[in-house]
Amino acid sequence: MDHYSNNDVSYTNTEGILNSDLFDEAYAHIKKWPHYQPTPLVSLDSLAQSLGLGGLYYKDESKRFELKSFKALGGAYAVKKVLKEHLASKYPDQEITDEDLTTGKYAEDLKKFTVVTATDGNHGRSVAWGAHQCGINCIIYMHKGVSQSRAIAVEVLGAKVIWVEGNYDDSLKLVKRHAIENQWCIISDTSYPGYEYIPKYVMAGYSVMTWEIFDQIDQVPTHIIIQGGVGGLAGTICVHAAKLWGQNKPRFIVVEPNSADCLYQSARAGQPTMVHIEKETMMGGLSCGEVSIIGWNILKDNADDFTTISDENVGPAMRLLAKGCAGDPTIEAGESAVGGLALLMELNPQSMASLGLNQNSRVLLFGTEGATDQEIYDQIIAQD
Ligand SMILES: Cc1ncc(COP(=O)(O)O)c(C=O)c1O
Q1: Which CATH number fits the domain that encloses residue 64?
Q2: Stretch 219-238: mean pLDDT, rounded?
Q3: How confident is the model at residue 120 (pLDDT cuts 50, 70, 90)?
Q4: What residue numbers bound the domain in which 374 lies?
Q5: Does pLDDT of 194 surpass 80?
Q6: Buried b (16+ CB within 10 A) or exposed e, 66-77
Q7: 9, 85, 227, 370: which has the fewest C-beta neighbours closer than 10 Å?
Q8: Cβ neighbours of residue 171 closer than 8 Å, sequence gap 6 or more
Q9: 120 included as an active-site residue
Q10: Of 58, 110, 56, nearest to 80 (Cα)?
């Protein structure tokens, strides 16, 4: 593990970056989506004990709608928000509901509306899912490192896939260019200067997880360990945990693959720092070389620790959860879901201490996806 303890942490007020109303509104809407139900918060008592911790909680997003990933909450929600705003500008006197969108009330107005995004898989699927529900056009850009079955999962939702040479950052560059040329609407989970309000909706959608955890957990966790790709997820949870738990908020630890450690490198440099990805990590959803500017602006002042890990413990962590440790429930966890557990498995007494972890710690992990690519998942689980 590489560890950077954030010297610049000041726990600044983030209201100006991600306003509380965004979280309230997202929860109020998403709770009403068909088939919505909170995903389980699983207490892994035996695993906690074997890792030398007091408690370990795992938010199991493998059960999130039919998408099996927390990303279902972000992209699809942002698509609906953007469509409502588009229609509101045309019909200022009408209140436009989610139902209006999904029942085709405004189909004629929306028939030329096209949403686009770059993705490593899960975010694109969420955007395609939202677009499919609302009957609008959707184009998803994927780089060659993304598996065919992740592309098929998007295509069955009616979206068109465009393959891009290079990595995630290259596909994002192409999306930006093509969107301007064709007047498409970018629904990105990452933000950059001049493009912030849509990623805020995506991030607000993620807060449904923390809302649910707040109701599900009996004791406030002492630590949150969360995976970082561009930092949108981590940024949201960091802000929302502080809002929900105030003074008792948990120590906030970000973990990234060492081959795509843009948040870690940015924290060390004290400014957004781009990382060139030379080798794709197994944790495909975290394979991002450039920080989301909103995520970064939150984390630079509010995350306590930035860490990186190798891929070494990813397979073992997935298998451990699939089997269940000494009587713990079994869990289906995809490659990008186990960053937190893989980090814990890598720690020695000294690195435990450097993160303030001990037998009294109650650690909250975000199992952000299930088997989102069944073939890859099965292969990894079979490598016992
Ligand atoms: C399963 C999974 N976990 C975590 C992340 C990281 O989210 P972010 O890129 O917002 O940091 C992603 C991103 O795609 C993901 O797909």
Answers
A1: 3.40.50.1100
A2: 98
A3: confident
A4: 2-70+199-382
A5: yes
A6: ebbbbbbbbbbb
A7: 85
A8: 118, 119, 141, 142, 143, 164
A9: yes
A10: 110
Nearest CA to ligand 1 atom 14: 285
Structure tokens at 208: 């449904």
Q: Is the same domain home to 213 and 314? A: yes
Average pLDDT of every residue of the chain: 96
Q: Let me know if residue 194 belongs to a domain.
A: no
Whether residue 225 sits in one domain with residue 343: yes
Residue nearest (by alpha carbon) to ligand 1 atom 15: 285
Q: Which of 98, 120, 305, 328 is catalytic?
A: 120
Phi, psi of 11 (to 5 degrees): 50, 55
Does residue 297 have its Cβ closer than 6 Å to ligand 1?
no
Distances (CA, A) of 260 to 155, 228, 276, 287, 325: 27, 9, 8, 5, 30
Token readout for 297 is 């602006």
Residue 125 CA from chain centroid, whole number: 13
Q: With 90 as the cut, is the pLDDT of residue 121 above it?
A: no
Contact 332, 85 (CB under 8 A): no
For residue 308, the cross-strand partners are: 2, 256
For residues 167 and 278, give the distance between their C-alpha atoms in angstroms, rounded to a whole number. 9
Q: What is the mean pLDDT of residues 60-77?
A: 97
